[in-house]
Amino acid sequence: MTNSIWGKDHSIAQAYWRTGYADFPIYDLHGHVGAHYAIYMKRCEPDTMACHLRRAGVKHLVFSHHEALFGNMRNEQVYQLCRSQPDLLRMYVAINPHYPERIREDLAKFDAWAPFAVGFKFLADYHNERVDSKAYEPVLKFANERKLPILNHTWGGSCCSNSTILLAVAQKYPGAKFFMGHSFFGDWDGAVKVVRETPGNVWLELTAIPGESGIIERLVQGVGSTRLLFGTDLPWFDEFQAIGGVLSAKIDEEDMRNIFYRNAEQIFGENW
Ligand SMILES: [Zn+2]
Questions:
Q1: Residues of the chain whose pLDDT is less than 70?
Q2: C-alpha 31 – ligand 1 centre gap (Å)
Q3: What distance in angstroms lies between residue 248's CA and the mean position of ligand 1's atoms?
Q4: Where are the domains of the chain?
Q5: May I ask the CATH architecture of the domain 23-268?
Q6: How far, in Å, is the centroid of ligand 1 from the Cα of 122?
């Protein structure tokens, strides 16, 4: 037991192990709400998710709703849902590139959804539309002008949101903040290249990575911990698994703090 990460005195891991909390808030910048037809999710509605998030010490979950991404739910309804957990939930406005009229309406309402709407979610591979296509342009321009984040689903070798496409898009819209969900999973060199060749507007988001040995260390080395963001894809993955994955990575505690909260506060402020 003495070699365990939680056996190290005065460490973040030990505090978390003993109390369930660290001495800082955790921001989960990649979540979802709602059931999904293909998988049983025990906690996928705001009330049950809220209990779980609070137990894990998460201050805000930023999510997109499954039904807004894949179905007919409108972002206006998602905004109403956020109001049931106003301290905890923040939303990415879900963008379906096949509904330009909805995109126009949602951009017009964006300001009215403050403080809950904090950015946008692109799921280009699932919608089978490249991020550099015309369909995304109105949102990219809007985010660029207002310096807003866009959480992109990215994956190594994907058809519509791989590192080559996103590098060009992030260079074209330097004002927008690009959160690269899953950090171009598997294309780790590409992920590093995108951060290095863009003007400070790209962050790599860690969903699915804490289960992979050595990758957090590799990304910290490649781009620095100030470019990494914590996220889980809750309810697809679990807070505790992801937090444990970061705490057990071989990086120093300053890096962990950057990942769990400092980078998010740099982007959104301390009270958002
Ligand atoms: Zn996701």
A1: 1-2
A2: 6
A3: 23
A4: 23-268
A5: Alpha-Beta Barrel (3.20)
A6: 10
